[in-house]
Amino acid sequence: MTELSGFFITFEGTDGCGKTTQIKLLENILKEKGYDVVCVREPGGTTIGEKVRQIIIDRDNSLMTPQTEALLYAACRAQLVSEVIIPALRDGKIVISDRFLDSNIVYQGLARGLGEDEILSINQRATVGLAPDITFFLKLSVEGSIKRKSNFKELDRLESEDFNFHQRVYDGYVYLSRKNSDRIITIDAEKAPELIHEEILDILKGIMKDRGL
Ligand SMILES: Nc1ncnc2c1ncn2[C@@H]1O[C@H](COP(=O)(O)OP(=O)(O)OP(=O)(O)O)[C@@H](O)[C@H]1O
Ligand SMILES: [Mg+2]
Fold it and tell me: Where are the alpha helices (DSSP H) in 81-184?
């Protein structure tokens, strides 16, 4: 994807680890500095994708198989990549995505047990080979995640899975971040939001020097 002059950042981690909080802080500072920033979330981020999101998270859909779940995520991603992410990157914008393919690998591939290769194979067409330039994995223990989620009003279908599922998600992220250590940066998400933000910004300044950050 050498023709893409933009920069693609993704945030990953267990539910409630602080992804949305950090994306908001990063978006604000980048916009203040004059960058063109596009923020999207998965699943969703497009009109079609948001409709598919409702099917995925609906607690009434208890019969959904892991395979169907994985394909729905991939369908959302296919729409998001071609409708929003690639055009923005082609225009030289910074794209920040709240979750991307790594979530699919961890949740459906590793925690649900479909396997990493199966998810990668499903997604070959969905992502047309697009990968993030950098990924921040906000590492928060399952206990910490549950504590933060207790502030949430109602949990969706994925969030209401049991402790063991969330532990497999956590373990999956640790495995994936070690395997892709050149791309995935692990951040201690137990720290205060402002400190995490500073750390992320420092890392980005290091790798986006040529873009004047
Ligand atoms: N570093 C932090 N320390 C303590 N609390 C935090 C921190 N970051 C976020 N929070 C709080 O934890 C809760 C979850 O944060 P946030 O919504 O950013 O997480 P998330 O990863 O986007 O969650 P989800 O996966 O459910 O979308 C919010 O109430 C937020 O204010
Ligand atoms: Mg969020």
Answer: 86-90, 101-104, 116-127, 142-149, 163-179
pLDDT digits (tens, 9 = 90+) for 34-82: 999 999 999 999 999 999 999 999 999 999 999 999 999 999 999 999 9
Domains of the chain: 7-211 (3.40.50.300)
- Across 18-152, where does the E strand assignment appear? 37-41, 94-98, 134-139
8 Å CB contact between 88 and 9: no
- Find out whether the beta carbon of 15 lies less than 6 Å from any atom of ligand 1: yes
The model's pTM: 0.95
Ligand 1 binding pocket includes 63 (Cβ within 6 Å): no
Kindly give, in sequence order, each residue whose CB lies less than 8 Å from that of residue 211, ignoring residues fewer than 6 positions away.
7
Is residue 210 scored above 70 in pLDDT?
A: yes
Helix, strand, or coil (residue 129): coil
Q: Is 196 touching ligand 1 by the criterion CB < 6 Å?
A: yes
* pLDDT digit string, tens, across residues 111-140: 999 999 999 999 999 999 999 999 999 999
Task: Tell me the CA–centroid distance for residue 126 and ligand 1, in Å.
Answer: 28
> What's the confidence (pLDDT) of residue 153?
60
